[in-house]
Design goal:
The chain contains 26 helices and 23 strands. By secondary structure, it is α/β, with parallel strands linked by helices. It folds into four domains: 217 residues, Alpha-Beta Complex (Spore Coat Polysaccharide Biosynthesis Protein SpsA, Chain A), CATH 3.90.550.10; 85 residues, no CATH class; 163 residues, 3-Layer(aba) Sandwich (Rossmann fold), CATH 3.40.50; 179 residues, CDP-glycerol glycerophosphotransferase, C-terminal domain (Rossmann fold), CATH 3.40.50.12580. α2 links the parallel β2 and β3. It is found in: Cell membrane. Belongs to the CDP-glycerol glycerophosphotransferase family. One of its GO terms (cellular component) is plasma membrane.
C-alpha cells in the first residue's frame, strides 16, 4: 500500500502550483501518490496538473466540471486516495526539502491516527514566522502518541488541514469530511483531534504556509466570513453527538479566539458588517458557554472576551479605534524621525530634482490628456522591444492616440524618423509622465511616478523567464544584491495590464509580481515581425549587415549574470569560426546591461561582427541561421522562426544555485545542449546542431512557449488597452 496520498486542490494557483508539486515529488522518499484536483480553475492550474501527470505516474489529476470549493475538492481527492495516510496540501504552499523521510519514519514507528507537523508562515517579503508549536509543546512529545483529553493544549495549534497527516481508514470510520464554504478546516480539524485515539507530534518544520500578498481568502472582504459561524456550530454539534466530555471549555475558548481573530482583521470584515458580526459572536458565546465556564485569557485578550460576553459592541469598537489611533501616531512619529534630511544634502542637483518633483506634482493635478500614450523601453535606452511593436500597431489601429517616447539624450539619434519623443529628466519628460492616459514600458517607470485615477499602466516585460525574477529573487540573495523589494512592489501595484507571451510566463509573473493587475496572455508584440517575416525581409537584413546569401550565420547572445559582474562565458570566436567553415559568419551580441562597454557597430572583421549596439535584435534573429545562447530569453523569441538553437551552459550548476531558475533548461531545451566549449564545437562538428533529436526538442519547446506568437499580438494589445474591445 502507498504510505501517503497527497491531495492537492488547485484553484487560481497557477503561479505557485509547480513549486508545490516539485516540493512533493522531489522528496527523497517515493512511496507516495499525488491527487491533484483541478477545481474548475479558470487559469492554467489544470494544465499544469496534466503536464506533471504525463511525466510522473505518481501524479493523478482530477478535473471538476464546476467549481466545488476547497472543502468538496479535498473530499473528491480523499475519495480517490489509496494511501495509508492522507496529507492535504494546498496548491500555493510547499514542503520543506527532505522532510518526508522523517514524516514517514514517524508514521511507521508510532502508527498515529493524526500526526501534527510544524510549519512556518512564508511571507511574500521572504520573512518566515514560526508557528505556535514551541509555545504549545515547550518540551516536544517525541515519538509518543496521546489522546486529546490528555493534552488539550494541542487545540492551540493552527486548525488547518495541511499541518497534519491523517490515517485514511480513521477518516472513513468516523465519516470525517470537509464541509462546503469558507473556514472549512474548522469543522474537520477539531473533530479529527477529538476522535483520534493516537495523536502524534513531529517537532520538525515540514511545510511553508504561503502568506500571499493578493488572492488569499484572509485578505478578501465580504460577508462570506460569516460562514465561520456555521463551521463552529458543526464542531459543537459533533461534540454533542459523540458525547465528548471534558473538552468543551478548551474548544469554546478556541472558538472565541477564532471569532476575534476574524473580526480583528480589517481586511476581512468591512466596517458596516462589524457590528452584525460582533452580535453573532455574542449569540454564540451565550449559546455554547460551558456550564462550568472556561479559562478566560489574561490581559487585553481577556478584556475582549468579557466584552463579547456582555455584548458591549460600542465599548469594544471604541477601544479598538483608540488602539489603532495610537499605532498610527507612533508610525507617523517614526517616519518623521527618518525623514529628517541634513542640510548638507541640499545640493544643486537636489534642488533641481525638487523643482522637477514639484512641477510633476503640479502637472498631476491637471486633467489627464485623453489622447496621450507614453512609451519607454530598457530604462530609456531607445525605441525597441514590445513597446515599439505596440506603438506601431497603435499608430495603425488607433491613430487618435498620440504616442510619445522617452529616451536618454545619448539615444535620441537612434529613434526612427517621425517618432515624437522627450528626453529623460527634462521638464517635458515630467509633464508627459504626469499627464499621460497610457504608460507603456517593458520595465518599471521611476518611483516618483504615481498611479493617477484614469491612467492605464501597461507592463509588457521583455522576455520569457528562465532565471527567477521579482520576489522570487529574495531566495537567491547573491543575485539580488541591492534590490528594494518593497519598492518593487510599489511599482508593480501601478500595473493595470501585464503582457505575457505564454502560459508559463503568466504563471511565473503571477508568483514573482503578486498584485491586482490584469494579465493579457496574447503573445509578445515584438515577435510579430518574426512570425510574419518573409524571405525578402531576411535578405534585406542580411544585405544591410554585409552578409552574403550563402553565408552560414551563427548569432551568439549570452545573458547577463548579476551575481558575477564583468564575467564572460568561455568562448573563442576564432575556434568557433574554424568549425563553422569558410562560409561561416559569427555575430556576437552582449546583454544590454553592457551597452556602454561596447563600441558602435562597425564592419565585419575576419568573419566576426560585434552587434551589441545594434538597435533591433529582431533583425539579428532574421539574419541568423542558428542561435547559441545560455539562459537568455532570446531563445524563446528566436524559436518563433523554427531555426536551430543551441544552449551553451558552461556554468549551469553554479548559475541555478546562485541566480535561481524556473525550469531545468538542459532537461527541456529548445535544441542541442553543450556544457563546455569543446562540447559546443562538437555540436556543430557532429551535426547535432540540427539533427532529429534537436528538431524534436525544438518542436516541443515551440509548442510550449511560442503558440501565441502568430503575428497579431500587438494588435490584440491595442484593441484591448487602447480601444477597449473585449477579446
Amino acid at each position: 500500500m502507498t504510505l501517503i496520498s497527497f491531495v492537492v486542490p488547485a484553484f487560481k494557483v497557477q503561479g505557485y502550483l509547480r513549486e508545490c508539486l516539485d516540493s512533493i515529488l522531489d522528496q527523497p522518499f517515493g512511496d507516495i501518490e499525488v491527487i491533484g484536483v483541478d477545481d474548475a480553475s479558470p487559469d492554467d492550474s489544470g494544465e499544469i496538473l496534466a503536464e506533471y501527470a504525463l511525466r510522473d505516474p505518481r501524479v493523478r489529476p482530477v478535473r471538476l466540471a464546476e467549481n466545488a470549493g476547497l472543502g468538496p475538492a479535498r473530499n473528491i481527492g480523499l475519495d480517490r486516495a489509496v494511501g495509508e495516510y492522507v496529507w492535504f496540501v494546498d496548491g500555493d504552499d510547499w514542503l520543506v526539502p527532505g522532510c518526508l523521510p522523517h514524516v514517514a519514519d514517524r508514521l511507521r514507528d508510532t502508527a498515529p491516527d493524526v500526526l501534527l507537523v510544524d510549519h512556518v508562515r512564508a511571507h511574500w517579503n521572504n520573512i518566515g514566522t514560526r508557528s505556535a508549536m514551541r509555545d504549545v509543546f515547550p518540551v516536544p512529545p517525541g515519538a509518543t502518541t496521546f489522546a486529546l483529553r490528555d493534552r488539550p493544549e494541542t487545540l492551540k495549534l493552527l486548525h488547518t488541514a495541511w499541518n497534519r497527516v491523517v490515517r485514511r481508514e480513521f477518516l472513513l470510520e468516523h465519516g470525517l469530511r470537509f464541509e462546503p464554504g469558507w473556514y472549512e478546516d474548522v469543522s474537520f480539524s477539531y473533530p479529527a483531534l477529538m476522535a483520534a485515539g493516537r495523536i502524534g507530534v513531529l517537532d520538525r518544520i515540514c511545510l511553508n504556509y504561503r502568506q500571499r500578498r493578493t488572492g488569499a481568502i484572509t485578505k478578501t472582504r465580504g460577508d462570506r466570513h460569516f460562514e465561520v459561524f456555521a463551521q463552529w456550530h458543526r464542531v459543537f454539534g459533533l461534540m454533542d453527538r459523540w458525547q465528548v466530555t471534558g473538552l468543551r471549555p478548551a474548544v469554546f475558548e478556541r472558538m472565541i479566539w477564532h471569532y476575534l481573530t476574524v473580526l480583528g482583521n480589517g481586511a476581512r470584515i468591512a466596517p458596516e458588517l462589524r457590528a452584525p458580526f460582533f452580535a453573532q459572536m455574542h449569540a454564540d458565546y451565550v449559546r455554547f458557554l460551558p456550564p462550568e465556564g472556561y479559562p478566560v485569557p489574561p490581559g487585553p485578550e481577556g478584556l475582549k472576551h468579557r466584552l463579547v460576553a456582555a455584548g458591549r459592541w460600542r465599548t469594544f469598537s471604541a477601544l479598538r479605534e483608540a488602539h489603532q489611533a495610537g499605532e498610527t501616531a507612533r508610525r507617523t512619529a517614526r517616519r518623521a524621525r527618518r525623514q529628517v534630511t541634513p542640510v548638507v544634502r541640499r545640493t544643486a542637483r537636489r534642488a533641481r530634482d525638487l523643482a522637477f518633483g514639484e512641477y510633476y506634482r503640479a502637472e498631476s493635478h491637471r486633467p489627464i490628456d485623453p489622447t496621450l500614450a507614453v512609451y519607454a523601453a530598457y530604462w530609456y535606452r531607445g525605441y525597441s522591444c514590445n513597446p515599439a511593436a505596440i506603438y506601431e500597431a497603435a499608430r495603425r489601429l488607433a491613430p487618435q492616440v498620440r504616442g510619445v517616447w522617452i529616451v536618454r539624450r545619448d539615444r535620441v539619434a537612434t529613434l526612427p524618423p517621425g517618432v515624437e519623443y522627450v528626453v529623460a529628466g527634462t521638464r517635458e519628460y515630467h509633464r508627459v509622465l504626469a499627464r499621460a492616459r497610457w504608460l507603456v514600458n517593458n520595465v518599471n517607470f521611476p518611483d516618483f511616478v504615481r498611479k493617477r485615477p484614469g491612467s492605464v499602466h501597461v507592463q509588457t516585460h521583455h522576455g520569457t523567464p528562465v532565471k527567477v525574477m521579482g520576489l522570487d529573487q529574495q531566495r537567491y540573495p547573491v543575485g539580488a544584491t541591492g534590490m528594494d523589494f518593497a519598492g518593487l512592489l510599489r511599482r508593480v501595484d501601478r500595473w493595470d495590464y501585464s503582457i505575457t507571451s505564454n502560459s508559463f510566463s503568466t504563471q511565473m509573473w503571477e508568483r514573482a509580481y503578486p498584485a491586482d493587475y490584469t494579465t493579457l496572455e496574447v503573445g509578445y508584440p515584438r515577435n510579430d515581425r518574426l512570425a510574419l517575416a518573409t524571405a525578402e525581409d531576411r535578405g534585406q537584413v542580411r544585405a544591410a549587415l554585409g552578409i552574403a546569401p550563402d553565408e552560414y550565420v551563427m548569432l551568439y547572445a549570452p545573458t547577463h549574470r548579476e551575481h558575477l559582474p564583468g564575467w564572460r562565458p568561455p568562448f573563442d570566436p576564432d575556434r568557433m569560426l574554424d568549425v563553422l567553415g569558410p562560409r561561416g559568419r559569427l555575430l556576437m551580441r552582449s546583454h544590454y546591461f553592457h551597452d556602454r562597454e561596447r563600441h558602435p557597430r562597425g564592419p565585419a572583421s575576419d568573419g566576426v561582427l560585434d552587434v551589441s549596439a545594434y538597435d533591433r535584435v529582431e533583425d539579428l534573429y532574421l539574419a541568423a541561421d542558428v542561435l547559441v545562447t545560455d539562459y537568455s530569453s532570446a531563445m524563446f523569441d528566436y524559436a518563433v522562426l523554427d531555426r536551430p538553437i543551441v544552449v551553451y551552459a558552461p556554468d549551469w550548476d553554479a548559475y541555478r544555485v546562485a541566480r535561481g531558475v524556473y525550469f531545468d533548461l538542459p532537461a527541456e531545451p529548445p535544441g542541442a545542449v553543450a556544457r563546455d566549449f569543446p562540447g559546443l564545437l562538437d555540436v556543430f562538428r557532429s551535426g547535432a546542431v540540427d539533427d532529429e533529436a534537436a528538431g524534436r526538442a525544438r518542436t516541443a519547446f515551440r509548442a510550449r512557449f511560442c503558440a501565441l506568437d502568430d503575428g497579431h499580438a500587438a494588435e490584440r494589445v491595442v484593441r484591448r488597452v487602447f480601444l477597449g474591445e473585449t477579446p
